[in-house]
Write a structure and sequence with these properties.
Strand content: 5-15%
Structural class: alpha/beta
Catalytic activity: feruloyl-polysaccharide + H2O = ferulate + polysaccharide
Shape: globular
Largest sheet: 3 strands, parallel
Order of helices and strands: HEHEEH
Distance between the termini: 42 Å
CATH superfamily: Alpha/Beta hydrolase fold, catalytic domain
InterPro entries: AB_hydrolase_fold, FaeB/C/D
CATH topology: Rossmann fold
EC number: 3.1.1.73
Subcellular location: Secreted
CATH architecture: 3-Layer(aba) Sandwich
GO molecular function, one term: feruloyl esterase activity
Number of domains: 1
CATH class: Alpha Beta
Helix content: 25-40%
Amino acid sequence: MPELINDTASIIYVAPNGRNQGWANADGQDMTFIQQVVKVTSNELCIDETLRFNIGFSYGDAMLYSIACTLAKDFRALAALSGGQLSQCMGGNDSIAYYHQHGINDQVLPIAGARQMRDRFVKTWCKG
């Protein structure tokens, strides 16, 4: 990605790997890890914390769902692409800008799961 951005963009990219080949968030370990990433980057880099975004694909999408449930106050918005409910959702109902995209013919992670993920946030934002 760095070769695609202009040096004057002042963007910081952080791309961690999940534990044990994924982001299952067993016992909240991945959430603890993400909280530490947020803390370290905030303490060591010049970051506008109101402009912290997250994007994930497949298993990374599942992790974003967990982040949206647990750490919504730490991110401005999340973009989730083609995932499912593979990670634990430990948390409240804080509002967050949440974009979810999913193929309708996905045979591995059917769209029904993506709709359930979406609906959690639609219900959070649209009370009534």
